[in-house]
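<goal> How does this chain fold?
<sample>
Here is the protein in question

***
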Amino acid sequence: MSTPAEGSDPEQTRRNIQQTRAELGETVAALTAKTDVKTRARTKATTAVGGLRQRVTQAGQSAKTTARQLAQTMSQKASQRAKPVAQKAQQATTAIHDSARAGAQATGKAESALITSARAAITKIGSSVRTKPVPVLAVAGTAATLVVIASRRRWSR
């Protein structure tokens, strides 16, 4: 027991006991948490699932960004490659019209020769497009990519 010489009063003793009980309660709670395997496993699983969801979301966003960039690049390349083809087609059309006008004014043999040369020019243009189908394929690829992106957007809604 304490003596009055030590300077402790009953109120101080009660506070010390309450403080010790609180510390003991915290210690017991910590030990209980460490021994509760089920709860710890659930916590780890929840954390892992959250991390996976975050990674999947980031991967999806990254894929969308990459698809948009690829579609834009393909569109630009297709446009760049289609311009010279369109110019050649315009030049060939002009040449054919000019040939046809000249052919209408010429005699029978000259008219026949001009028609033959116009046909040859058309054949040459057709074979040129067949031998270099890259612009057509690029446009088709861009269109297919845009269709895939649009359909994915509809499905994700």
